[in-house]
Amino acid sequence: MKQIxxxxxxxxxTPELAKEIEATLVEYANACQFIHENSDxxxxxxxxxxxxxxxxxxxxxxxxxxxxxxxxxxxxxxRKTSITNHIKxxxxxxxxxxxxxxxxxxxxxxxxxxxxxxxxKRTKIELLIGxxxxxxxxxxxxxxxxxxxxxxxxxxxxxxxxxxxxxPTDTDKVIGIDLGRTDIATxxxxxxxxxxxxxxxxxxxxxxxxxxxxxxxxxxxxxxxxCRKLQQRLSGKERRFQxxxxxxxxxxxxxxxxxxxxxxxxxxxxxxxTRTNQQRRTKKERRLSNNWAFYQFRMFLTYKCLLNGVRLxxxxxxxxxxxxxxxxxxxxxKGKSYRNGKNYHCNHCGWEGDADYNGAKNIxxxxxxVNQPGGSWLFCQVSNLDFRPRQLTIWDILEGYKKPAS
Length: 406
Ligand SMILES: [Zn+2]
What we know:
Elements: E1 4-11, H1 15-37, H2 46-60, H3 65-84, E2 97-101, E3 105-108, E4 113-117, E5 122-128, H4 131-138, E6 142-149, E7 155-162, E8 174-179, E9 183-187, E10 192-194, H5 196-217, H6 221-260, E11 263-267, H7 283-289, H8 292-308, E12 312-315, E13 339-340, E14 343-345, E15 352-354, H9 355-368, H10 378-381, H11 394-400
Helix pairs in contact: 1-3, 2-3, 4-8, 5-6, 6-8
């Protein structure tokens, strides 16, 4: 299945550049408006419209041949949309965006510079993007783009890419990662990152915030303002600290996986799971999928895996924390678990140990069964449940991530 992903990239703009872009946006919008007003309103066919309007538009506007064709397509497209959506309002075109294709736009992934056709000439513009965008753009071919002016006056180029990522290495080894609160992450190879440092820091910040809050409500005007400023700076600091930790852990994990040629499996907290029996989300799932920090962790992990050719497998999170990884038993009484906080003690085989490590082991086993569809004996043990993970592409995963409010 063909899938198109749009990557939004901020442009580095100088005042002269802004002038040139504005002129292009205005000319493009005017041309669209002209086409709309001087043609039969029922006409939505690109080819028919082109033979009717192309020459006139070229005579009256400074647009290039290719951009003129895009303007014609834009009008036809917008007309179709308003017909299918039963929009009564008359169409109008404002100077906020221009369409590009491979003839009028290109991207250099070595220098991160785009070249686009503006009104008078082809112009190179630097992209202001982070590793997430770079990771995705690097492994893909961009065919079309839209230059966009946002409400706040900044300029972006939205690059559309086809679903082509470098093939991840095939392997029969999988590292499972369990994400949690007391420990940020625990792997099936017993690597573990304590959340203590973060919790301590967070408590420290929240105490300081409380003090500042008190001060901000009293005192003179200037001291109140100073307190508010400090409050803002604090929340930024906390965020950067969390980001730093997330980068550190994910870099370590992906590097290790790349060196040892293993895949990585995590729990699927997105809405793309393919279990046939739709269970409700557990408390843990809800907490993790609504948490800004864990969202960032999964984002970092995803793009780093993509960059390093490491396969990322999402597994069904049902029962990963309750099943004993040694004997695959679940507590026979409904609602009860062998898990007790950080500790897991299986009454069936007697295994006792860290609960997150047990979870990570289960996640790894589930991830491994991706390569052996239907063959794993794990399924027999829980035949009433659909435990089979699906082979997901990186694009499914990115699509499934819903950004929680921060
Ligand atoms: Zn057991």
